């Protein structure tokens, strides 16, 4: 036998549950109160064009009261019962769809009929004193967030509404004027009517962003400073109007000092002048140095109006459109404001280059404009390639060192003698170089430790082969090479250079430690290193012509080996250290014997 029943609702707990779980930030109650007041003013403007709307926010610290009042349409007794005592009923929504004045309809903000619940998050009691146009007596509604409320005659003498909240102790911070001021600026900046705090003669909200008034660049800069608390390095007004994507506002690049206080990709998002949330997903993931403020009318709100439905087509379309806008912003700076772009790169070097690595269009536009630190100071890759020697069929190599692995004295001497600048890069810039060389025919890149061999030329004279063979009899791998400067007699190199790309990849994947890797370099057997003797050096030429059977000849060779190892900058193993010490002592003994 089938039976039916009726849901039983615990209204007191339901109201508290909705109020406390619907809103992540309790201060959103300020937004809801001011926006309700704004909608009331909009409705009155539609009926009375000469009406001058105003919203006042006051605090009475001694009584722990927060008060918001407006001179909008007010509510009659039936309206109070219908809209304040019925969860989900929205006077604004009803008017929005019934009014013939489309301009007024577009100015209305409320839609779900639950925003007023937020007042029960911050207040233990809420009182509404309201007088509607055409009513002879005000109505006073009072509730403590329970199933019961009271209705009685109000005291208000002029048309409009006064909402008084007796604050919960946890929200007494709203009685601090500076806290309340910053909260109102955050949530009510674009409310089109003046919002006054206390006895202030001037409204604290801007009412209009520069994009509402076709503002100048200075006005955009001023507004970004007002909103984010610092003067931006650059701003970009945006106006997107596509099929599924629409917004107006401004993108900004802040100084690196201010960026530390602002979340990466921070975007303050409004909808029809209502602040919704701080969004950090709409801007592309690579644009960590960009922030902004936009009004996005097509995005679909969640019920609390604190966020958007991010899986909807409008959200995805706007995200793609904003990626194009950021790209255009940076390209414009690079091409039309090079001084500003250089400043941006200086302060957001890794972020800009990471953006180029991750975004092919941006990379193509700026790859030849970005600068890298080098022995010669900041230099673009185009200028760098003009300065380095050409090998073979037009091949060029970009030499670099990681900032935490400076070149050795012998490496600096060789590249300096050839006039080859060395780039000083970080891991992100190393990835940039890889992408740059992959996109350009005949250009490669090498870490200086691995690429120094490209600047050496092998000797082909048989006399040098004999010298190499005699050195091998001493247990050393030696090559006769020609290189500048000629006063550098010898250098030590690893026989097989390590693969830096593998190190970077393992580090980024979290599977390896760069520190451990660097510490391990050089801790190998001595035959992992080769000795390159400079055939342009007079001492080496004497060794070529000397007698290998002479003990002095072997002593000098070993001393050169020790000198080269020390100059290479490697961390000596105990075995290598002992060999170097033995060579030095032998050389001293030889000098004393000769003396």
Percent of residues in beta strands: 15-25%
From the alpha-carbon coordinates, what is the Rg to the nearest angstrom?
A: 37 Å
The CATH topology of the largest domain corresponds to: Heat Shock Protein 90
Principal-axis shape equals elongated
The biggest sheet amounts to: 7 strands, mixed
Average residue pLDDT? 80
How far is it from the N-terminal to the C-terminal residue, by CA?
A: 122 Å
Q: What is the total tally of β strands?
A: 21
Query: In CATH terms, what is the architecture of the largest domain?
Result: 2-Layer Sandwich
Structural notes for this entry:
- This protein has 595 residues and is an alpha+beta fold.
- The chain has 4 domains: 11-197, Histidine kinase-like ATPase, C-terminal domain (Heat Shock Protein 90), CATH 3.30.565; 210-337, Ribosomal Protein S5, domain 2 (2-Layer Sandwich), CATH 3.30.230; 370-453, Rossmann fold (3-Layer(aba) Sandwich); 456-505 and 512-594, Up-down Bundle (Four Helix Bundle (Hemerythrin (Met), subunit A)).
- A 7-stranded mixed β-sheet has the order 5-4-3-6-2-1-7. A 5-stranded mixed β-sheet has the order 8-9-12-10-11, sandwiched between helices.
- Helix 22 crosses helix 23.
- The longest helix is centred in the middle third of the chain and has 24 residues, at 313-336.
- The N and C termini lie far apart (122 Å).
- This is Molecular chaperone Hsp90.
- It comes from Herpetosiphon geysericola.
- Belongs to the heat shock protein 90 family.
- ATP binds at residues 32, 36, 70, 75, 111-116, 161, 305.
- InterPro entries: HATPase_C_sf, Hsp90_fam, Hsp90_N, Ribosomal_Su5_D2-typ_SF.
């Amino acid at each position: 036998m089938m039976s039916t029943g009726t849901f039983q609702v615990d209204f007191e707990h339901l109201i508290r549950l909705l109020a406390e779980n619907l809103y992540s930030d309790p201060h959103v109650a300020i937004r809801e109160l001011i926006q309700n007041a704004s909608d009331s003013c909009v409705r009155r403007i539609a009926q009375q064009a000469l009406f001058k709307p105003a919203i006042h926010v006051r605090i009475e610290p001694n009584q722990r009261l927060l008060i918001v009042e407006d001179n909008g349409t007010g509510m009659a007794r039936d309206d109070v019962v219908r809209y304040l005592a019925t969860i989900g009923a929205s006077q604004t929504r009803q008017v929005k769809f019934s009014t013939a004045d489309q301009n007024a309809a577009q100015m209305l903000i409320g839609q779900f009929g639950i925003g007023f619940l937020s007042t029960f998050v911050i207040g233990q009691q809420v009182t509404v004193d309201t007088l509607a146009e055409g009513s002879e007596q005000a109505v006073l509604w009072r509730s403590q967030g329970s199933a019961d409320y009271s209705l009685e005659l109000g005291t208000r003498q002029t048309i409009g509404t006064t909402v008084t909240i007796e604050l919960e102790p946890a929200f007494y911070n709203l009685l601090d004027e500076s806290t309340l001021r910053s909260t109102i600026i955050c949530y009510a900046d674009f409310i089109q009517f003046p919002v006054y705090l206390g006895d202030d003669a001037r409204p604290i909200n801007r009412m209009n962003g520069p994009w509402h008034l076709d503002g100048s660049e200075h006005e955009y800069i001023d507004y970004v400073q007002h909103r984010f608390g610092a003067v931006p390095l650059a701003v970009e007004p945006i106006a997107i109007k596509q099929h599924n994507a629409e917004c107006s506002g401004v993108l900004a690049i802040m100084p690196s000092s201010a960026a530390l206080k602002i979340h990466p990709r921070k975007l303050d998002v409004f909808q029809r002048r209502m602040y919704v949330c701080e969004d950090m997903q709409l801007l592309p993931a690579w644009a960590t140095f960009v922030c902004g403020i936009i009004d996005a009318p097509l995005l679909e709100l969640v019920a609390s109006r604190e966020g958007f439905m991010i899986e909807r087509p409008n959200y995805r379309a706007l995200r793609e459109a904003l990626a194009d806008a950021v790209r255009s912003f940076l390209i414009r700076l690079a091409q039309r404001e090079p001084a500003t772009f250089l400043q941006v790169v200086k302060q957001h070097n890794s972020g800009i280059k990471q953006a180029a690595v991750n975004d092919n269009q941006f990379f193509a536009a700026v790859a030849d404009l970005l600068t890298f630190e080098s022995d010669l100071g900041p230099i673009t890759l185009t200028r760098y390639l003009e300065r380095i020697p050409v090998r073979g069929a037009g091949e060029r190599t970009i030499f670099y060192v990681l900032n935490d692995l400076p070149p050795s004295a012998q490496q600096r001497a060789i590249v300096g003698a050839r006039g080859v600048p060395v780039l000083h890069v970080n891991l992100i810039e190393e990835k940039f170089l890889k992408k740059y060389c992959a996109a350009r025919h005949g250009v490669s890149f090498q870490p200086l430790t691995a690429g120094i061999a490209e600047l050496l030329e092998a000797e082909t004279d048989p006399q040098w082969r004999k010298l190499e063979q005699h050195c091998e009899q001493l247990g050393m791998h030696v090559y006769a090479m020609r290189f500048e400067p000629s006063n550098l007699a010898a250098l030590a190199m690893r026989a097989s250079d390590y693969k830096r790309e593998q190190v970077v990849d393992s580090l980024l994947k979290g599977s390896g430690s760069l520190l451990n890797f660097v510490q391990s370099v050089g801790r190998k057997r001595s035959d992992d290193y080769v000795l390159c003797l400079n055939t342009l050096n007079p001492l080496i030429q004497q060794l070529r012509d000397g007698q290998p059977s002479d003990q002095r000849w072997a002593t000098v060779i070993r001393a050169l080996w020790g000198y080269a190892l020390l100059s290479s900058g490697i961390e000596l193993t105990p075995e290598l250290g002992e060999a170097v010490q033995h060579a030095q002592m032998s050389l001293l003994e030889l000098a004393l014997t000769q003396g």
